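User: Can you help me understand a structure? I only have the sequence.
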Amino acid sequence: MLVELTEIGKAAACKHKNLRVYKNRKGPRYRPLFFVPKSATVFLVNIIQLGKAYIHRNFMNFVEPIRDRKKIAQIKNLLRGEGRFLDLLLFVVGINTALRISDLLELQVGHFLDDHQHIKRRFWIKEQKRGKRQEVVVNASIREALEEYFAAYPEIISDQINFIFFNTKDNGFKKPIKRGQAWKIISSISQQVGLRGNFGTHSLRKTWGYHARMNGVDLALIMHKLNHESIAYTKRYLGITDDELQAVSQRLNL
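Assistant: Let's start by predicting it. Here is the structure, written out as tokens:
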């Protein structure tokens, strides 16, 4: 029995030793991969695994921005009240930098502190997804969250390569939290403040873009910041309606 795989399926099929993988070649490109399960049980197990991968890749990316600034303030206050300064910093840095979660989780002490342990005004990273150099500005909101964070975890500044968003279950600061953990943090806190819809780590990046646009920032600049290929895609990505843009224009009386 042959089953056609998606891009996710290709990766999953190559990882499993109990699958026989075939490649058909026609011209300069490879055609889709196929696999043959050795048994009905193995087949069902792999269908489930592929389904989980599909949900992780698609469902987790189709999230909403946090449109209400009052909800943003409510999330900050809730995290501060519960003493969750690591989660607070993750949230604040995410909505103020538009970094992807893969880049956020790789941030280290040396990105934020100089050799004299002073908070930097800006730093640069190389994006994991596209390999582009990205400037990260440390604004007042990030600085405030950093000061609270370092006060809560003073020992983390002992080494510049310690991960900012470290795994609390691991001894030391040498391993960052997983993407799934970060997703649960943002999803859970969104539910706690009464947000309805699908919210996760990608909501942080979308929140930056949404509020930048609603504050009159040109779509071309937002597209550049988010490293998108077209303005049309950026508009769809942000989920901004024509009615919302019209409301902005009506408020803007120069």
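Now, to help you interpret it: Residues 124 and 133 are 7 Å apart (CA to CA). Residues 1-13, 15-36, 53-60 have pLDDT under 50 and may be disordered. Let me know which part you'd like to focus on.
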